[in-house]
Design brief:
Layout lengths: L1 E5 L4 H10 L5 E4 L17 H15 L4 E11 L20 H11 L9 E12 L2 E14 L15 E3 L4 E2 L7 H4 L1 H13 L4
Parallel strand pairs: 1-2, 1-3
Antiparallel strand pairs: 3-4, 4-5, 5-6, 6-7
């Protein structure tokens, strides 16, 4: 069984990816057990660029291994695509998501519902021994909700309303796993990984 090392320290993402890859003959490992080392600087201006930076960085620390990395976030059209690649660091790395929600809603206070279009994006790559072997992108379209709703999910899920589901992703329960941006990206990864010898 092939091992895919998922380069993230976010336990929510690990749980999602393991669930999405259930049934695929791969074993998902984390960064746990690697010797301590500096994290890469995510300096790219695109999700794809940052995913590549992380993938190549951790592949260099895991010779011969398949390293899966992703960069994801929320793009709000009325905010020029913000928070975008800065989603995890919006308002600073120590800001709470409640503070981030409040600031996004403050900036959108004069924007009508129809103009609050947004999307979640997940760029995912597989790297090994200095090369990018696979790349994909998953997207889910929606809009920013008028107020946070729901206790499920994580990150920006409480303020992302999916017209398809009729609720925020934080209210979607188990359905989120089949429709999210990460679900679309990991579905493509599953098809690729299923052909590994």
């Amino acid at each position: 069984m092939r091992v895919l090392r998922f380069a993230t320290t976010n336990p929510h993402k690990v749980r999602e990816v393991r669930g999405l890859l259930a049934g695929v003959p791969v074993q998902v490992e984390t960064l746990a057990g690697l010797p301590p080392g500096a994290e890469p600087e995510e300096t790219a201006d695109s999700f794809e660029g940052n995913a590549r930076i992380k993938g190549l960085h951790y592949a260099a620390r895991c010779p011969g291994e398949y390293v899966v990395s992703e960069d994801s976030g929320l793009e709000v059209d009325a905010l020029g695509g913000a928070p975008g690649v800065h989603s995890a660091r919006f308002l600073g790395p120590d800001a709470t998501y409640e503070a981030r929600f409040a600031e996004i809603l403050r900036r959108l206070r004069d924007v009508p519902e129809a103009g609050r279009t947004a999307r979640f994006v997940c760029a995912l790559v597989v790297a090994r021994d200095g090369a990018i072997l696979f790349e994909t992108r998953g997207v889910i379209e929606g809009r920013v909700a008028p107020a946070p709703a729901g206790a499920g999910g994580f990150g920006y899920d409480p303020i992302f309303f999916s017209p398809e589901l009729g609720c925020t992703l934080a209210e979607a329960g188990d359905v989120k796993a089949s429709v999210s941006h990460r679900a679309h990206a990991v579905a493509a990864l599953a098809r690729w990984a299923g052909n590994l010898k």
